[in-house]
Amino acid sequence: MSTKLELTAWGSDISQVKIPLPNALKWVNSYLVEGSNGYTVIDPGQHTEDAVEAWQAAFAELNMKISDVEKVVLTHHHPDHYGLAGWFQEACDAPVYMSEIAHQHAQMMWGQGQRATDVIYRLFEQHGMDSDMLAEIRTHLESFVPFVSPQPEVRYIEGDTIQLGDRTWETILTNGHASGHLCFYAGATKEMIIGDQVLPQISPNISYVPGSDPQPLESFLTSLRHLSSYDVAIAYPGHRNPFQHVQGRIADLLVHHEERLLKFRELLTEPKTAYQCCVALFNSNKLTVHQLRFAMSETLAHLIELERRGHAREERLVDGTMIYRSV
Ligand SMILES: [Zn+2]
Ligand SMILES: [Zn+2]
Question: For the chain, what are the domain ranges?
């Protein structure tokens, strides 16, 4: 993979650093916020050799050393954002900040003796995924451990504000894509570090994961409506490039999920398992195992929302398989 450096300056103190990802998203955006005490790194990326090389190229380009990093701040716990935090901490002893809820989820997914792999495997099995696919899912889930190792010691982001570089930013809790996900807002300049909550061109994945948010789509739609009250001139997202049309994107995402809920509802004219719904809606034979896992979790999030709205009902068959039927 190319380690061509892609670094872009935004405003007076923010640089976007594209950190490569070994999947279809291609890269995650890290942001360096420059301040008089050093650099704040937002979402350092996923731990791969290519990612470390990209950081070394960025340090050389900016004429800085890793010891110039003052702190690492995470919008959420997903491996493509959180994975390199421990590597940074080992290399420069910087404190790592994230929300307490996001840290609990990082522990649940990748902590010592975690049970998330078994729990997700059983969930997908119960919801009708066939055994060949299930075997791939287990291998896939276990493959993430090196991407998030070593794990950092974490300090919790508390209160309504956080210092990034020399500026104070408002912290905004935006559940749904990830529990405990935070956006950061600078009201004076109308800038928002928006993580994966709103992305240009991409619909952020909404996953149901047992032990986490029981109604993630409802949480996501609620947090989108809350974000729509902010006046944003530019948003710095976790994927693709900084963008201006935040209100338009929020409106698009709200419509997108209503349309998708309608499609799931139509699929339930005949009772189906979540896996059958997933295959029908996402053209699953074209998906990688990574994409299929997210498609399945997103299908469950939508079926749960249909149930919450009184449009569907979950039932257990005698063999233990769960099916959904319309109400
Ligand atoms: Zn994410
Ligand atoms: Zn991401």
Answer: 7-114+152-266
Using only C-alpha atoms, what is the Rg of the chain?
20
Q: Name the closest ligand to CA 24.
A: 2
**Residues whose beta carbons lie less than 5 angstroms from ion ligand 2:** 80, 196, 238
Ligand nearest to the CA of 76: 1
Tell me how far the alpha carbon of residue 76 lies from the centroid of ligand 2, in angstroms. 9
Ligand nearest, relative to CA of residue 205: 1
Which ligand minimizes its atom distance to the CA of 237? 2
* Residue range 7-114+152-266, CATH number: 3.60.15.10
Phi then psi for 88, rounded to 5 degrees? Answer: -60, -45
For the cut 90, the answer to whether the pLDDT of residue 1 exceeds it is no
Q: How far is the CA of 327 from the centre of ligand 2 (A)?
A: 35
Give pLDDT tens digits for 69-111: 999 999 999 999 999 999 999 999 999 999 999 999 999 998 8
Q: Which CA distances in Å does 40 have to 34, 116, 165, 193, 261?
A: 7, 31, 6, 13, 39
Structure confidence at residue 125 (pLDDT): 97
SS3 69: strand
